[in-house]
Amino acid sequence: MFGGSSLSETLTVIRDPVHGFIKLNKNEMAIVGSRPFQRLRYIRQLALTYLVYPGAEHSRFAHSLGVMNFATRIYDTLLEKHRDLLGWDQDRVERNRQLLRLVALLHDVGHAPFSHASEELLGRRDHESISSRVMNTKPVSDLIDRFEKVRITAKDVVSYFSAESIDPDIAFLREIYSGEIDADKLDYLLRDSLYTGVHYGRFDFERLINSLLLIQDPKGTGNYIVAVEFGGMHALEGLVLARYFMFTQVYFHKIRRAFDHHLVEFLKRHVGTYPRALSEYLEWDDNRVLSLLQKHRKKDENARRILDRKPFKESFTTHEHINDEQRTRFQWMWKEVQNEFKGVSMFCDTAEKTPHRFEKVGTYILSKTTEKPSLVWEESGIIQSLKNIEQYRIFVGETHRKRVHAFCQDFWLNRGKKAQ
């Protein structure tokens, strides 16, 4: 049975380059057709990355559909293996499946223009909290309430964005769309890899999904949690490596980072912060920002640099992983550069990311050496070996690039080291 709808109900089929065919029932399509969700067509998944990788024009709209599809596949895999263990009747199976699909479908509906690139303009808010507001507000709330046959309300969907409010016996559902092995990562890595034309984000997602299972939490909570069969270890490692390389090679690409800087600086000057009123906020998308860039092109340097594709250039960069001494040396060097080149426009970029959280999050794998589940962190030497990404760069206009580079090279290799 499909998401709380009868087998005889006509389903809408959407063709997707990552998933093939994605099926939606009538009420899901009503949500997809709503203005708040259609707005996601005009919010690019990777912000201005299309100015670096021309194919990266894909949107949050397609990503949201993909997350729903992956979440459903994971759910169906787990239920096929563990329905007797969970003891759910058919009504509960259908309700939880539909609830998970709605959560996955709507998780990004509150994203700001150009996705994460302009989140700074949200102030103390984040896109998750705005997504919750959208779900709790008409027309989306009314459309969610149509799922009365499976007893789902807008409040039920919003509750999944707060781990404390979820019933303990279905808490594992939250892991499916927001965990270390979740539908969101699966879709954005494969989708971003496809549209940028790189191979870094590819991994054996079929093997990984089929390797997932439920176990009782070894911490003694009595809850079921998502774990991995031992045979899925390499597929899991592939996911982690894919994410690592996508950050180093795509998400932290030097030109993309420069464009992000120019975009944020432009928006700070001409927008300040995005509106707090939800109706006004939802009027903002990439097209509105691009129109604003065109409007101020003649008088605003950041607008020109984006539209003419002439961003600041990388003048100096550290390695992708630095130690405490190198971090201190860079901070000192950055101060010296600013003193040496007073009046020259430049900026310092900090690219930081943890490639995984397995050391802190108790994700388990069925070990070959013991009868009890083992932590992924303890079993995988590859995952243990990955260092946190921490890279510092200095960007400046083309006119001063060589001079700043020479100064930094001399400082980094000579003066900075001698002073340590």
Structural description of this entry:
This protein is α+β, with helices and mostly antiparallel strands and 420 residues long. Helix content is 49%, strand content 11%. The protein contains 19 helices and nine strands. The chain has helices spanning 26-32, 35-38, 60-86, 90-106, 127-135, 140-144, 154-159, 172-177, 183-196, 205-211, 233-251, 254-270, 278-281, 286-295, 301-307, 324-340, 376-379, 381-385, 398-418; strands at 12-16, 20-24, 212-216, 224-228, 313-317, 346-353, 364-366, 373-375, 389-396. The protein has a four-stranded mixed sheet. The chain has a three-stranded antiparallel sheet with strand order 5-9-6, sandwiched between helices. The protein has a two-stranded antiparallel sheet with strand order 1-2. A hairpin with a 6-residue loop joins strand 7 and strand 8. The protein is globular. Residues 1-7 have low confidence and may be disordered.
The helix-and-strand class reads: alpha+beta
Strand content of the residues, in percent? 5-15%
User: Which value, in Å, is the CA radius of gyration?
Assistant: 24 Å
Based on Cα principal axes, name the global outline: globular
Number of DSSP helical runs: 19
Order of helices and strands: EEHHHHHHHHHHEEHHHHHEHEEEHHEH
Low-confidence parts lasting 5 or more residues at pLDDT below 50?
A: 1-7
Helical content band: 40-55%
Total beta strand runs? 9
Overall mean pLDDT stands at 93
Report the major sheet. Answer: 4 strands, mixed
Largest sheet strand order: 3-4-7-8
